Each structure stands twice: as C-alpha cells, then as structure tokens.
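Summary for the steering committee. The consortium agreed at its last meeting that each partner would contribute one worked example illustrating the joint modelling workflow. Our contribution is presented below. We chose a case with several input lines so that the handling of multiple components could be demonstrated. No manual editing was applied between input and output; the record is shown as generated.
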Amino acid sequence: MSGHTDMVLVDENGMRIDGRTADQHRPFKVEAGVLNNADGSAYVEIGKNKVLAAVYGPRECHPRHLQNPTKAIVQCKYNMQAFSVSDRKRPGPDRRSIEISKIISEALEKVVLTELYPRASIDVYIEILQANAGTRCAGLTAASVALADAGIPMRDIVPALAAGKADGHVLLDLNKEEDNYGQADVPIAIIPSTDEIVLLQMDGNMTREEFDHGIEMAVAGCHELYELQKDALKRRYSKKAEEESE
Amino acid sequence: MNYIRESDKMEKRNARQTREIVVPGDILDGTGMRPGENAYVLDGKVRACVMGVRNVFQNTVGVIPLRGCYMPTSGDTVIGVIEDIGPSNWLVDISAPYPAPLHVSEVPWKVEFGDTSRYLTLGDVVLLKVLAVDESKKISVTMKDSGLRKIEGGRLVKVSHSKVSRVIGKSGSMISMLKNMTDCRITVGQNGLIWVDGDDENADVAVDAIKMIEEQAQSSNLTDRIKEFIESKIPQDEEYDDEGDE
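What follows is the complete predicted structure of the assembly.
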C-alpha cells in the first residue's frame, strides 16, 4: 500500500506474480504439538510465512490487577524474530506488534470458554520466524490450533486469511509484493460453525462491492484452512495410535 | 480410594467400539441427543468444545478430553508440593490453575500461629483431599482424613491428569498389578502426581512402567504389555495374583 512500482502484479490473463489466480490462496501447512514444553503448540506455514505458536495455561494470572473474577483472560504476545524480514527487524515490542497482540487476544477470547476459569490467564505466544505478508492471519491460525492442542475448552477453531486489492483486482491472500504495492489489505478471521467474524481490519481503500467480494473469497479460504487445522489436530493422535498398534 | 469414579469412566470408554477423535467445533450429534461433558449446543446440533474422544452414554453425547489442565473437584485425593508458607496456612501447588491454601485447622497437628514452617516447609510433598471448590474456583484442601499425610521418601512421577484413569485401570486392575509385581507402595493423585516408594530397582521399573502407560494410553491391551514389560525387568517368583487388591 505504501510504495509504487512498475511491476505488473496481475497480468492480462488474471495471473499473479507467484502464478496464482485471484481467488487462490498460497499453500498451507499446519502442524500441531510441535513443542514439548508448552501445554499446546502449533506450527503454520502460509506460503512463505512461518509461524510458531505456544499456549500455556490456564494458569494464575500475573500481574494480579489484570485478573477478572468472572472469567479467564487471553494474553497474547505476537513477536517477530529479528531475522524474519529481509532487513533486520529491531527486536522487542513496537506499536505494530502490540496492536496485533491485542486484536488476536480479542479474537481468541470470543471462542475460548473463558467463564470456566475465573481469575486465570491463558497465555499465547506467537513467534514469526519468517514473514511474507499476512503474518497476523498465520499467527491467529496457529494460535487457535495451539489452544485446541492445549485442551482448552473452546467453541471452535479460528482460521484467518486476508483478502485485498492490487492492480485494481480483488485478490485472496496477498503476498509481500501485492501487500506493499497494492491498494488494500483486509485480514479477517471467522468462527467457521457460524461464520461470525472475530477479526476484521482494513488498510487501504476498496469500494463496497470489492469489499464484499473480498470477504466472500476470504471466508471461503478460511473454511479450507479450517479443514487443515482440524486435520492437523486429529493427525497428531491418529499417528500416535498407529505407531502403537504396530 | 476414589478409584471408583475413574474406573466407571474407563468402563464406558471400553464399551465403545470406535474411537472417534473430535476437535473443538466438530458436530457430535444432530439428532436430538443431549450435550454431555465438554459439549455445547448450537442450532440444535451438539458440538465438541475440547479435543478428545467422542463418548456416547445413554442419551447424552460428550467428549473425553485428551489433554488439558487438572481442575479439582471436591473429594479428589491429590498430591501437592508446598510452595509458600504463611503464618496460618500453606500454599500448595496441586498442578491446578489455582493455588490451594491448606489452613492450619486442616492439618492433623496442633500448630501455633506463626509456627507453620516447623511442620511443613517449602518443597515438602503432601497427600491431600480436596474439600470444596466454589463458584470462583477457590479451592480448600484438608489433610485431616485417613491416609492423608506428609509424604517422605520415595519418588514422584508426573503424568498428564487425563491419563490418571489409565494408570489406575479398570476397577484398579492396572495399579494393583503394578503394586503387586514391583512390590512398591504407589499412591496416585487425581492431579496426575504419583508417588512411588520401594526398592530402588523396583521403583525404577515402576516409574518406567507408569511413563509407558502415559505414552501409550491410547492403545489397547495395555495391561498385558505392561505386565510383560515388568516381567522382563523383574523376574516374578510366584504366580501373579490377578485379584490382588489393596
């Protein structure tokens, strides 16, 4: 959105620079239970994005003043590794990562049955190992798998995916170039069982029609991602059972 | 002790033919069954809210969790570690999300105000009973019951609390076999802490066997395999008594 380029992001055949069509997402990879010391964990790749998520808890909430006597709170920490982008990212929390942590916490709080654990805190750590546009979606996708892997009661698993606009075309799941030189980026996250939206942001400009079309594509993409999330969790246990029956 | 409740669950589990692994949001039933444990209703369909194994019991359908933290319920026998000392109470870590205060009036000794550390100090291991857990998850525990005491000697093994019922086995079959074959004193806390006391060599085998049960909890015929495992480590002189009971 920031820069300008002479690059053709969408060619005359509707093909994007990485060979995708407008409504095609990047390849997904989801794996659950990758860390031994976390209560739950997940690893997600969306194209060139590589994300690790770890969940601890429910546990006692510190600092004390954040405790809620009626429900648990979800505390999320989104962190980009210094080596995750091509120019080194200065380590530590910044305006952007604080914002992302907040919106991801709020999205997860909508699905976790927080009222079961009053005064407790559920801690989610998201580490971006490699970034290529759409890390907040990949982070949320990984975090919700990690939560389910930790055995935390939740209504559903949350998939997240972005829609956007580049070169005047409405596109699904923008990559780095389309995000940087495009006109809009709309990340969304949904609860698949009800199609409720738990995260929605928009950076850039789109008409109402373009926006509706983008949401439609992103919701469809989320449902595809959701199947992979479920599969990753189930695979974790069926694989174990297979090994044992040998 | 309170093996009965756990073993009832085991029987239900064994009665089921297929092991269907579900994840949060999965539809358990849409034909009017009632939601059981870890299930909720949305649009007339029963859905799972934790990752686990689908469990049908009479007219209810629920989920037996595969992972998750220990939530105390009144009557549970648990093993805890003293983590803080106050003038009139101790704080005990029973591996629940909340601390469990043990008041001086709930110990079998007459303790003067401020003299708590003479009886139990940091790191001491105690066998406790959960008296009550209230709405806001405030836990009260007691040491005033038969068999409850400070634990000295022996070793502690930690298993996931969801595997406790597997360690105990159907109506205590697994645990009594372990006790008889290894000649160890074993106490299982509902919170997943297990205390093993006996000869060094025998206790090693018992600990290994417990670890093996935790790892292979999903597989069938586990009791037989554990029996084989212990036999290979400790030659049994007399015929193992299958009805052995505490």
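The radius of gyration of chain B is 20 Å. Chain B touches chain A at residues 19, 21, 23-26, 38, 40, 42, 47, 49-52, 65-69, 97-99, 135-137, 162, 216, 218-219 (CB under 8 Å).
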